[in-house]
Amino acid sequence: MSTQSIPSVKLLINGEFVESKTSQWRDIVNPATQEVLARVPFATAEEMNAAVASAAEAFKTWRKTPIGVRARIFLKYQQLIRDNIKELAAILTAEQGKTLPDAEGDVFRGLEVVEHAANIGSLQMGELANNVAGGVDTYTLNQPLGVCAGITPFNFPAMIPLWMFPMAIACGNTFVLKPSEQDPMVTMRLAELALEAGIPKGVLNVIHGGAEAVDLLCDHPQIKAVSFVGSTRVGTHVYNRATASGKRAQCMMGAKNHAIVLPDANKQQTLNNLLGAAYGAAGQRCMALSVVILVGEAQSWLPELVEKSKTLKVGAGAEPGTDVGPLVSRAAFDRVSSLIERGVAEGAELLLDGRNVQVPGYADGNFVAPTLFAGVTAEMSIYREEIFGPVLCVMHADTFDEAIAIINANPNGNGTALFTRSGAAARHFQEEIDIGQVGINVPIPVPVPLFSFTGSRASKLGDLGPYGKQVVQFYTQTKTVTQRWFDEDEVGGPVNTTITLK
Ligand code: NAD
Prior knowledge:
Layout: E1 11-13, E2 16-18, E3 25-29, E4 36-41, H1 45-62, H2 67-83, H3 85-96, H4 100-117, H5 120-123, E5 128-133, E6 136-144, E7 147-151, H6 159-170, E8 174-178, H7 185-197, E9 204-206, H8 211-219, E10 223-229, H9 232-244, E11 248-252, E12 257-261, H10 267-279, E13 289-295, H11 302-310, H12 330-345, E14 349-352, E15 371-374, H13 381-384, E16 391-397, H14 400-409, E17 412-413, E18 416-419, H15 423-432, E19 438-440, E20 456-457, E21 460-461, H16 468-474, E22 476-484
Parallel strand pairs: 7-8, 7-10, 8-9, 10-11, 12-13, 12-18, 13-16, 15-16, 18-19
Antiparallel strand pairs: 1-2, 3-4, 5-6, 6-22, 11-21, 14-15, 17-20
Helix pairs in contact: 2-4, 2-7, 3-4, 3-7, 4-6, 8-9
The structure holds nicotinamide-adenine-dinucleotide.
């Protein structure tokens, strides 16, 4: 394809999809084929400021839009996403690499948040206490903040933008989104559908770029809150920078999620669950199970775990029957390969080596097949770093409490899972484990939007998580109103010199 014929990704500013005037562009590359699908601009400061200005202008009217009007837009939006889910999944697979069923899952988990946003009337309701003093009532208003910003990672380019802007906008805010520069195409299609659903001009804006765009959003005086999802390194920077200028910030960050397998667990169910959670989406999930601790006699399951790992089919995400697609980029491929190398050098037992896998018809893809290390210790790089590839680290513990202690000593707190048939063991785990999202025989316990995403410790900065009830608090300011009304015929009451209301 000549440079001229490569499509460009547009900016969304004030209700218009516009071509950037920047001179800085980056290719969006199909990770299975290396085909250049499109070019994404790194927006100029002028364009980014125009996006924020249009959001600030739109806020003046959007903040007072009736509940029913806001809710109906999201009712229509969920239907449009549902009607277009195959197309959205195909775009996502082409630019990101995950399999088509997994890409549909990515869209679907975001769609669930849109459905929830349609219920904003009851979610945003305040509280009222009658007669807090004689003739006095106190009630709360949960009012929108203003312009909010979202910065999203490459690994869920549909779900994570949908964690953010629907809830922020449903609460009466306006929004500037900066998607991952690696795979913004599905996000842009979702933005088109949002406008089709009736989101007014300026209420949703999308800019593209990298570190400079992120810093502008963190510093901009008209932005009131920043939601970030991505790596711990960048998230820590975003949190510090956004809060330094007085903004609210919530940052969901990197992880190292462990499963504990007790010997009484349902063996085949457990092994199948481990494979899906470790190698699905090529391990590029913040909730992937990348460490398994086999306790006591469950250690004898290791050979079967290795054999089952070999059965997964590696291939292009668009090919039917693929279990493990390519890594998102050449850089990710090189990083994962070098971490495998380091695992070997540091003495872990490489029982399954997924490097050098050949995928017929896709010689240039960024493929790494399921890889399994045993004998992993807490000092090794493959344990300390988030590999973000299809690499499973197996550890051993003699007792259940020893396994719990390993997990609690790890700084991350995104997710964990226990496999057992014992209710008592499950309850002990739930009480003792210091991780924000816990699965009992559920490998990837990401909550549905009736709840919030509740990663903890080093996996999160800020008190409130994305979606669910917590995000309504994040995207609103509570105003408490205390009011009293005097009867016309009540005249000349006492001068009130104390602060006590009676
Ligand atoms: P990333 O941190 O590299 O990128 C995230 C965003 O930050 C992107 O929009 C990117 O453009 C921007 N960015 C990159 N470098 C920057 C810099 N130096 N300064 C400012 N902004 C910068 O993350 P990624 O590689 O796209 O995504 C994978 C990471 O995200 C993993 O660590 C994964 O665990 C994490 N993640 C966490 C969750 C969660 O809910 N906890 C969910 C999904 C992904």
